Amino acid sequence: MAFKILTSVAVALALISTPALACKGRNTIMSDDFAKEDASWQAVWGEFSVANGRGQLKSEPGNAAMVLNGSDYVESGDICVDLIAPNARNLFAGIVFNAVVQGDAAGLYTFIANINEGTVAVGRLTKGKFLLPVGWRKSDAINQRANATNTLRLTWKGNNATAFVNDKQVASFGVQSQKETYVGLLAWPEAETFQFDNFKVTD
């Protein structure tokens, strides 16, 4: 009996201390389970489609694919998405945030993961150059099994951002905050298809 009680307490504590694999903000700004196509998604590079309950990004070899959500500006918040990677090496995909599409300030940040290699990085596109504020690093939080689902999460406010994979923090870094910015998804699929599910942004 005592063993059963201790076991129950341990399980309860684990449930309390282990956060769910999802955005943690109180209010939902936008969300999409990709049950049907939503016109607020606008492809910038490559092809974006919805099929079998998942968003899909594909491009020609040697090119990236990116889609932004134009339903609202997001200048800070908590964004998460489930990423299902194809069984191919040296391909990456992830979350786009702080994206400006017009004027001299045009650019974006992206939290990306190479599932097959088990690595993550933070990229920044600015003035036509792609930089890596956080270089590629190994993460044991990534499930590298073929076609596994990994939850990517990015929180940012002001000049600070933090990235997570499957609820484990993998990077903390600085961001140049801007006004009227968008969020979205990016992939370097090399003619393969990256799939996404359960996209959500909270405040």
Reported CATH architecture: Sandwich
The major sheet is characterized as: 8 strands, antiparallel
The count of helical stretches stands at: 1
Unreliable spans: 1-20
What Rg, in angstroms, do the CA atoms define?
18 Å
CATH fold label:
Jelly Rolls
Number of domains: 1
CATH class descriptor name: Mainly Beta
What is the rounded distance between the termini? 44 Å
Overall pLDDT: 87
Fraction of residues in H or I helices: under 10%
> Would you list the SSEs in sequence order as H and E?
HEEEEEEEEEEEEEEE
Query: What's the total number of strands?
Result: 15
Structural class per helix/strand content?
Answer: mainly beta
Inertia-based shape: globular
Find the CATH superfamily. Exo-inulinase, domain 1
Q: Could you explain the architecture of this structure?
A:
The chain contains one helix and 15 strands; from the N terminus they run αβββββββββββββββ. The chain has one helix at about 1-15, and strands at about 30, 40-45, 45-50, 55-60, 65-70, 75-85, 90-100, 105-115, 120-125, 130-140, 150-155, 160-165, 170-175, 180-190, 195-200. The protein starts with a helix and ends with a strand.
